[in-house]
Structures are given as C-alpha cells and as structure tokens.
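Input.
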Amino acid sequence: MTTPAAGPRRAGSLAPVRLATWNVNSVRARVDRVIAFLERSGTDVLAIQETKCRDEQFPAAAFEAAGYEVAHVGHSAWNGVAIASRVGVEDVETSFPGQPGFAKPAAPAPADGAPTEAPDPSPDEAPSTLLDVPPPVEARALGATCAGVRVWSLYVPHGRAVGDPHYAYKLDWLRALHDAASGWLSDDPRAQVALVGDWNVIPLDTDVYDPAAFRGHTHVTPAEREAFAAFAAAGYIEVTREHLPAEHTYTYWDYQQLAFPRNKGLRIDFAYASPAVRERVTQVVIDRDERKGKGASDHVPVILDLADDLTHDLADAR
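Output.
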C-alpha cells in the first residue's frame, strides 16, 4: 500500500483538520470500535499503531465503507502502523530515512503496569540472526500527506529492559527519527509536519501513576527522556501537553490489576508538531471514554483540532 515518497509540503491555504492518534492494539479485533470512534468523533485523519496484521489482513473495506482511504504497513502479527484519512492520503512512505532495523529479540520482565511487546521473534526479525544479513526494518513508521499535513504514525520500540539489545535499538530508532525530522525543518522551517503516536517514553515522573514502580526499567531512563526531549530542541513542539498540562493525565492503562478503574496509568502517546502545525492547533482531547467497555484497547485516542492556516495568517497580519 505505497506510492512514491515526497518530502513535507510547504503551508498554503489549508482546511481545518481533526487529526487523531490511537494505538488500537489489534485493528482486526477492534475494527468496529475504531469505525464507531471515527464516525462519532468526526476525525478526518487517524494515525493507528499496533495494527498487528500484514497488509493483506488489514480490514480496509470497513474503513473504505466509512469514507476513509487507508495506508498501512505490517509484516506480521506484531507492530504495524497505518493512517486512515477522508481528506486524502498522498506520498506514502513506510519508513523514515535512516530508520534502523532489529533482529535480536529478548524478553526480560517489564515494570509492573508497563506496556509490553512480543517476547518472541516476529517473522521479519528471526532470519537476520541466522543469515547474517542486515536486520529488517520493522513496521513502526508510516508517513503520508493528508490535507497538506505530513503525518507520521509512529510506534516507537518498547526497549524491553535496560541493557537489552532492544533498548539500544529504541535509542538508535529515536536518534534516527530525530535526525530525519530535523532535516525536514531545516529544508523548510514552515513545513507542516505532525509526529504522532505511541512513543513508549514517560517524559516526566508525573506522567506515571507510581514513578517508583518504574525505577530501573525502560520508559523513564535519562537516555530515553533525553531522546524524547531532543525533538523540542530540533524545533518541534509537543502540543498535547501544551494544551493539556495537568499532571497525571494518562493515555494508557494496563489490562492487569484493575489499572483503569484505579487510574494506574501512563502518558506515552504524544504529538510533536512543527511550528507551522503548532500554530494551527486549537484544541487537544484525550478520549478517556474509549478505555471503557468490552473490547477496549489499553490506549485511548488523542485528538488534535487544526484550524485553517489562513485564519492564522490573517490574525498575524492584523
């Protein structure tokens, strides 16, 4: 599901867009909930993570029936990212420049309440360890231009445990994304770019129900937090916290130990916006209700409203 790649587009007169990101934790298991969310929320563009299916298994027909085009990349029952849009899907890329691969799985225990990834090798991981070939690039990043905005649906590697090869891979992956994203702004400071998804980083102690429970584990290490903060130094703005600064505002609750009713959550789903996109963001909503009921994902949608950029141009001119 790809078309030739292109770089971020320069802002023109762009229409308002409702953009959301959601780790759905298996799109086939939750397709009815996802479609219902799209229809209920009026979302124009949805960045999806953890689809957990191959391209040919993605339930595209359900999205098309609801009026959405879909771009998806998935190689196995793990990972997988997509973008569903009713305002166009152009110039699709199924990885960012320099995106590293991974080939050596490991499975130490995560912190209590932390999100987990598959401990066993996915079909695209295992062969590289056996054949001594470059590690495969996983299905963790997909970019597409939707209504003039270059949207990246991102599923950052988990890390599994400090010292694990997957942890080093996570840091390499974030560095490579940072380098690519920095280049996009260097090429065009007014580029319309949105880096959205499941970042698998807890930037602040107030983004986790119990910082002590994560001490010594992934998601909270200085290296991960520095890698996350580096995007701000590159010129991007994390707009969800800008609009929703309250402490203990979560986007993820584990399925175990009654984490949701006890509000034992994490804030790990974010949206880094280029300055041109940041100017257009008028509202951010975390749809906590999507964690309720039967068959819910362990993450909830994060929704951004983007105004017509012409409105900002006129305001600046006054």
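The mean pLDDT is 89.
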